[in-house]
Amino acid sequence: MAEFSSAGNNAEEVLIANAIREEMAGLGLSTVCSIVNEVCQLLVDHLWSECVSSHMPKTQDDFKKKMLDMDEFWQFPCCWAAIDGCHIPIKCPPGGLEACKEYHNFKNFYSIILMGLVDSHYRFVWGSCGFPGNSHDAVIFRSTDLWNSIQEGFIPTIGKDVGEITVPPLIVGDSAFPLRSWLMKPFTNAVLTPQQRYFNYRLSRARMVTEAAYGQLKGRWRVLLRKSETSRDQVRITTLACIVLHNICIMQGDAISRKLDLSVDESGGKRDREELRKLLQMSDCPSLKDASYEAARVRDALCAKLWLEKQTGKVC
What we know:
single chain; metal ion binding; nuclease activity; nucleus
């Protein structure tokens, strides 16, 4: 259990960790692992709905509140959440070379992918885990229950008039995701206009909430940083349990220590290179080629709005 702790952050945590070790003293490794696995499963089964799904907006007022918060804290209009994927290390999977290749990611280790949707307060409002590490984010997203719900009309038909366009509640994602009227991604032209570069900057700044959430998640629960010797399914359950605990910490106002927060390590130059790599990998993926005319119009309208704000000095 101690490997789940952020180990030694303060005197109280040291006392708790020592108490756990004393309680576990004399137990066999397999028994301890069984206890940990059972606790993780119980966290997901009984607290996921209360601690994660409850933060997903359900009514028009819920969406409006999410959008107001995102605009206030991350300065991107009409946005209610940000989406991104994250690699969780695993041992080399069984099944021969083909199975290994499927889980071997471009960072050169074996992993499963956690895809999460995060609100302005770093809370996960939705998450799905277990996809092979070599999978594309856009392909993963299209296979989730969240994508299906959105296609069935989950996002309400409310919007904000921006010029001649009505902009619906938006999710923001990186270059790997498909452009939709409800999902904004950066411009990826070979040559960008100043307006497009500024739009990309503002969108990237809004997406930082996911990077910060993942940094805090892994900083608090460092088991997610290490290659696990357990099964892929158990790694998946452990990861989802850590999301539950992460949200509980935020709900209780338990701020993470700066020295444990991995947000800085999850961003910056390395992150930019990763995003470029994703874009190159996705160049032949159909989901990048079927963006609707309406989605492009929404992005262009937002681009013009943000540039006007910059020119008039409303936002830096």
